[in-house]
TrEMBL record:
SUPFAM superfamilies: FAS1 domain. Keywords: Signal. The keyword Thylakoid does not apply. Residues 41-178 form the FAS1 domain. This is Fasciclin domain-containing protein. Pfam families: Fasciclin (PF02469). Residues 1-18 form the signal peptide.
Length: 182
């Protein structure tokens, strides 16, 4: 009788313990970015850090001191440039921007890729102007079923993967770095 009571108590203890452990739902809808699953239950930084296509972006976010901000509650819409997008910049520019003395410029460029609120691709319309966290505007252009984001200098970046849901917003992967006017 004592053995049976002990087994029941152990079983109940295991159920209570298992019920109190947070877990990622096996049914959670993920999108693959850079070879890694992006989980809607994780924040922007947690997910982007797993993408092999966003190592430069994550290094820049760390250098700019924006990890805590982009891990915060948001919500944010992030137009996330890939490593290839950063490679399109003039040679040596990324290495220069991540230096401590250039933190203000790097922060300005990165926050130009962030819009307050969560905007899915279906909420973006042709000609729409988006005010970034940096303070300047981006313009949405829709053409041939593609969504492009036009920066202050008139350069267009194409959204290559849209609507990557995050716990604190949404990421749209883009193929060029967006540049503010100043």
């Amino acid at each position: 009788m004592k053995l049976r009571t002990a087994l029941v108590m152990i079983s109940l203890s295991a159920v209570v313990t298992a019920a109190s452990i947070p877990f990622v739902d096996a049914q959670e809808k993920t999108v693959k970015v850079g070879g890694a699953a992006m989980y809607p239950s994780k924040n922007i930084v947690e997910n982007a850090a797993k993408s092999k296509d966003h190592t430069t972006l994550i290094a820049a976010v760390k250098a700019a001191g924006l990890v805590d901000t982009l891990s915060g509650p948001g919500p944010f819409t992030v137009f996330a440039p890939t490593n290839e997008a950063f490679d399109k910049l003039p040679k040596g520019m990324v290495q220069t921007l991540v230096k401590p003395e250039n933190r203000a410029t790097l922060t300005k460029i990165l926050t130009y890729h962030v819009v307050p609120g969560k905007l899915d691709a279906s909420q973006l319309s042709d000609g729409q102007r988006l005010t970034t966290v940096e303070g300047e505007s981006l313009t949405v252009k829709k053409m041939g079923g593609k969504v492009m984001i036009v920066d202050a200098k008139g350069n267009a970046s194409t959204v290559t993967i849209a609507d990557v849901s995050q716990s604190n917003g949404v990421i749209h992967v883009v193929n060029s770095v967006l540049m503010p006017a100043s």
